[in-house]
What we know:
Number of helices: 15
Bound molecules: ligand G3I
Strand order of the largest sheet: 1-2-3-4-5-6-8-11
Amino acid sequence: MNFRLMAAAAASVLALAATANADEALTNASTLRALGAQVRLRIGTAANPTTLGDAALSQIIADQFSVLTPENDMKWQVVEPTQGNFNWTGADNLVNFAEQHGQLVRGHTLMWHNQLPNWLTQGVSGGTISASQLRDLLRQHIATEVGRYRGKIWQWDVVNELLADANPSQIRPNDFWVSNLGPGIVADAFRWAHAADPEALLCYNDYNIAGEDGSNAKHNAAVALIKSLQAEKAPIDCVGDQGHLDLQFGFNQILMTQDLQEFASLGLKVAITEADVRTFVETTDTNQSPVVSPTDPTPSHTADAAATDWYIGMLQSCLIVKACISFTVWGFADSHSWVPGTFKGEGDADLYDVNLNPKPQFTGLQQTLLLARGAPNRGRLRDGDRDHDGDDHD
Ligand code: G3I
């Protein structure tokens, strides 16, 4: 064997070894964050001081997720409960936890009508805060918060839930910010965030904007909003679709994929930012066992299968759209979910049950990520492989 042939043989042995290692790594990976990394998709969760402070819960957060979103700790109500007095404890802890565990952070959220401090809303309604003072306060709030975490936030939800639940939809006419400061405040919020951290990806975040309502009403309003922001040269980089689903309503995965792709075609990154799938549960049973309906307490054996299917559907939509950079669940355990507190009689919305056992919803995401990484191999035959007829191929 001449030198060139020997080199080629050695290279092919090395290539086979590399392939074997890669295949082994593929089949050995089982955490969501590792499986996501293999298809360049960050898998995230919302976290809060309770979940980060609990040994078992924080272990799951560290093991399974590569992006964290503070569930409440970066909201204005929490960071500035009284005017001029700041509380960064929860936000700092989350950012530090993320740094220690090789995770990125989605900042949530800067301009939203909800969870505003009383001093601000009462000041406006009582007439002690004028429109120009309110504008200055928002500018200062964004500069302070984004500036504090400059270089540490991957994506910021700059503006949250601005669009009306109506068909056709539009900017909520009574939105706190727009009704007090006019629609131009939306582009300004993005400009102020960009000035405070030019590297962060700046997102518009909302629910039902990727076809979840079946009508595409809010999606169309979101597209119109984004186009107007782009026409105003606002520095918007991404759209977050929250992905809060409920089994009593529909879910159209094809529509979600098309809608995410349409956002991408506007030149934006997209993300699923708050995924969960809730259903009716037995209210006297702390295990959040699903039932058929509030009036029919028969245990629903199909609920977890349906919820798993919808979780998989959302993840697949994100995987199909190249511009989708992260898939985040809004909490991961039924024991620490926002759902029962907000939707009475509903729950069972998460990947883990109340005893922190992974549910089929978790396994469904795992298998979908594994498939996303492994499936292309099916089309690439190598020497010694057998084709689909079972014969050695040429
Ligand atoms: O911290 C206080 C506590 O001191 C008080 O004793 C208790 C009494 O109710 O309330 C606690 O505050 C609660 C807070 O969560 C922290 O737990 C608020 O009442 C409660 O309203 C708040 O709910 C949050 C909700 O946003 C508010 O709109 C949920 O945790 C949070 O998961 C949820 O997250 C939103 C996203 O930001 C935007 N998209 C929708 C999503 C779900 O609603």
